[in-house]
């Protein structure tokens, strides 16, 4: 969170924004993101909290883990939008699209840092892997059916590196191509969804399935398609001069 706010503020001010706006927005956006992440996790994993021999109160036990990045981004984005609009009533600010584009690389860095929590918790690793970079998992943390395997795909590392790579693309490619501010955050959603969708095919932790595929794969595909359509329409409007 600190990384996202610090880098976002630097980029936002460089783009013509005013200092302090990013941190002011973060006061609303960060709690909204945490709530959204928890809601996504509970909604997509209801069997952990509701039903026979389950205590629904544990749905509020956020310290026990369980945050969905899609919910965090969605509700955090909504919180940022309304907070930015509210602040803009008293101050003349750049468009929200510029604000969101300024924050995207910092958010990716924050995600790259946060993914290392999975390493500390020995969780969310992938299929067995016999390679020098294989992640050694103690037997008590291995899923049922994998007790004989010692090393696994470090999917947390794959996603962390992918986030850093996408952040680099946004910082360098956007400067060369002079993309419109509204397309920067959308490009972040597109590229992250692409990488996340591929990474989800490697994970072996429990997940709800739809037509045999993990729910997060479907979410990644839908967001990828939606963001690409938005980028295409944005590009067409730019060529025709329509704002």
Characterization of this structure:
With 243 residues, the protein is mainly alpha-helical. The protein has 2 domains: 18-93, no CATH class; 95-243, no CATH class. 62% of the residues lie in helices and 3% in strands. The chain contains 8 helices and 4 strands; from the N terminus they run αααααββααββα. Strand 3 and strand 4 (213-214) form a beta hairpin. Helix 1 (2-14) crosses helix 2, helix 1 (2-14) runs antiparallel to helix 4 and helix 6 (155-177) packs antiparallel against helix 7. The longest helix is centred in the C-terminal third of the chain and has 26 residues, at 215-240. The model has no long low-confidence stretch (mean pLDDT 88).
Helicity range: 55-70%
Q: What is the element string, with H for helices and E for strands?
A: HHHHHEEHHEEH
Any idea how many domains? 2
Sheet with the most strands, sense and barrel status: 2 strands, antiparallel
Radius of gyration: 19 Å
What is the count of DSSP helices, taking H or I runs of 4+ residues?
8
Q: What global shape is seen?
A: globular
What fraction of the residues are assigned to beta strands by DSSP?
A: under 5%
Kindly report how far apart the N and C termini lie: 33 Å
> Residue ranges: pLDDT <50 for 5 or more in a row?
none
Arithmetic mean of pLDDT: 88
Q: Strand pairing plus helix content: what structural class?
A: mainly alpha
Q: For the largest sheet, list the strands in their spatial order.
A: 1-2
SSE topology:
Layout: H1 2-14, H2 21-44, H3 69-88, H4 96-114, H5 116-120, E1 135-136, E2 151-152, H6 155-177, H7 181-200, E3 209-210, E4 213-214, H8 215-240
Antiparallel strand pairs: 1-2, 3-4
Helix pairs in contact: 1-2, 1-4, 2-3, 4-6, 4-7, 6-7, 7-8
């Amino acid at each position: 969170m600190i990384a996202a706010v610090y880098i976002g503020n630097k980029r936002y001010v460089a783009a013509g924004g005013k200092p302090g706006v990013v941190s002011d927005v973060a006061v609303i956006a960060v709690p909204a993101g945490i709530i959204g992440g928890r809601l996504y996790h509970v909604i997509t994993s209801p069997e952990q909290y509701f039903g026979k021999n389950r205590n629904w109160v544990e749905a509020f036990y956020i310290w026990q883990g369980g945050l969905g990045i899609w919910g965090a981004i969605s509700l955090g984005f909504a919180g940022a939008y309304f907070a930015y609009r509210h602040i803009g009533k008293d101050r003349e600010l750049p468009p929200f699209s510029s604000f969101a584009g300024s924050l995207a690389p910092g958010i990716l860095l924050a995600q790259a840092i946060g993914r290392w929590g999975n390493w500390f918790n020995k969780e969310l690793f992938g299929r067995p892997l016999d390679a020098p970079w294989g992640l050694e998992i103690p037997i008590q943390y291995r899923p049922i059916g994998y007790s004989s395997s010692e090393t696994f795909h470090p999917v947390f590392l794959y996603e962390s590196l992918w986030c850093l790579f996408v952040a680099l693309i946004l910082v360098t490619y956007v400067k060369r191509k002079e993309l419109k501010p509204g397309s920067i955050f959308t490009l972040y959603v597109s590229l992250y969804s692409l990488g996340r969708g591929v990474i989800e095919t490697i994970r072996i932790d429990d997940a709800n399935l739809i037509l045999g595929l993990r729910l997060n794969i479907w979410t990644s595909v839908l967001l990828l398609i939606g963001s690409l359509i938005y980028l295409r329409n944005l590009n067409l409007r730019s060529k025709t001069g329509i704002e």
